[in-house]
Amino acid sequence: MAADLYSAKVQESRAYLSLLLTPLQWIVDVPSRVAGEVSDVVVDRSLLLKENAKLKAEALQLERKVQQNAALWLENERLRSLLSGAERVDEEVRLVELIGVNPDPFQHQVIINKGSENLVTLGQPILDAGGVMGQVTEMSHYTSRVMLITDARHALPVEINRNGFRTIALGKGELGELELDHVPDTADIVKGDLVITSGLGGRFPRGYPVAIVSDVLRDPGRQFARVRVMPTALLNKSRHLLLVDMPAELHEAVIPNEVSE
Amino acid sequence: MNPGSPAPAGGGGFIILGTFLVGLMLSQMPLPYLIEWARPEWVAMILIYWVMALPHRVGMGTAFFLGLFLDVIKGSVLGLNALSLTIIAFLTLLLHQRLRMFPVIQQALMVMVLVGINQLLFHWMQSFTGYTGDNLIFLLPCLISALLWPWLFVVLRGIRRLFRIR
Questions:
Q1: Out of A107, A250, A258, B85, which could bridge B63 as a Cys pair, Cβ 3.0 to 4.6 Å?
Q2: Residue A19's pLDDT is what?
Q3: If we measure between CA atoms, which residue out of B51, B26, B10 comes closest to residue B165?
């Protein structure tokens, strides 16, 4: 046990052990996969038509946003160059699929279907349609383990979108709830504020939504205000996730040892 | 060994392995968040059965390797489950002759105690390296395991008799 905590060699053997278990994980995943496919096959035609129309409308809306986005992006670039600031690097994403969850309810982890053979690296951020989900903490050859942001051992550097107030979102080991750490009583945070990643720490790219402030408790008896936030990502529902490939130079700057190994 | 039976001990190793594989699969079956707290400890129960029925074939070594796989599934530090399963295998080895005499209900009570020891050891060690919460809800699986034991016992005994594993 001590060896596992302190040695990298054991991590390797752990990867091989999980490789042995990978077929089991696939088998366990089969029922839900089959259920999904069956419901695809027996679905009603009118339902499909309705869904198609809805998706088309949604796509139109999103395209309109993207049109604006392109202009905003260029404007941002110009302003940045005026300020002679660093150029913003865009991250690439890959689609991955969730194939399992950790059966231990104390640990909020999920298992995805890409591993070190698919060039997944330690610490890569995972997103879903709603926002940040977590980061890769362990890789086997064809699967890897993702620690969710609600895990009690996870902390995420964030900022309030409205005013750029920086803080850290701590997981509490409870589904659907995070807490902002060390927020002074005077901080300008109100219910409904959007919390986004601040990009400090370098693990997570800047500007992805994390959570929405659900409750601010300012108690004069306490040293800090208690701010509870609700993750925007569907942590226990999403099946299709996005794996973010951070630009290499940024990644190396953060975790030099792991990259050089 | 029963002198009347011509077949020597052996055979059915794959069947035993199969039941353990099914146990490992059941223990990583995705469950809704609230029910997840009540997930029975399948591997520990199946292990208790085989150690009780065939103490000369399934013992602490099997328990150790099963525990390693369970560690990988649960993402815990390698060796936590291995140690706690080895300990309950040892306790079952001590108790197996008494356990065989007990009626099923009394066996279920013993299973509750054994699985409870497993949970306590696991969470005690887990608390050195991670978060384990601050209430006793982690003991719920031992109650559920005890409730399921009579059915598991009947099924596994059926399998053992069907394939004449001894």
A1: B85
A2: 86
A3: B10
Shortest Cα–Cα distance, A29 to chain B (Å): 8
State how many domains chain A has. Answer: 2
Looking at the DSSP bridge assignments, the partners of residue A160 are A195
pLDDT of B108 above 60: yes
SS3 state at B96? helix
Stated pTM of the model: 0.81
- Domain CATH code at residue A221: 2.40.10.350
Q: Does residue A117 belong to any structural domain of this protein?
A: yes
The pLDDT tens digits for A169-182 are 999 888 889 999 88
Over residues A217-238, mean pLDDT:
89
Say whether A100 and B75 touch across the interface (CB within 8 A): no
Residues A196 and A222 in one domain: yes
The verdict on A167 and A196 lying in the same domain is: yes
For A174, the token pair is 């409870």
Question: Are A226 and A246 found together in one domain?
Answer: no
Residue A104 within any structural domain of the chain: yes
Q: Considering only A85-89, A204-208, A251-255, which range has the smallest mean pLDDT?
A: A251-255
Contact between A144 and A204 (Cβ < 8 Å):
no
Residues A189 and A213 in one domain: yes
User: Of A18, A105, A153, which is closest to B37 when you measure between CB atoms?
Assistant: A105
Alpha helices in B37-103 (DSSP H): 42-53, 60-74, 80-101
Query: Residue A167 falls within a domain, yes or no?
Result: yes
Instruction: Please tell me the distance from the alpha carbon of residue B60 to that of residue B89, in angstroms, as a whole number.
Output: 5
* Alpha-carbon distance A23 to nearest alpha carbon in chain B (angstroms): 10
What ipTM describes this predicted complex?
0.79
- The Cα–Cα gap between B62 and B60 comes to 5
Please report, for the domain that includes residue A134, its CATH number.
2.40.10.340
CB–CB contact A153 B21 (8 Å)? no
Domain containing residue A195: 155-231
Contacts of B77 in chain A (CB under 8 A): 1, 4-5
> Are residues B75 and A102, on separate chains, in Cβ contact within 8 Å?
yes
Residue type, B39: R
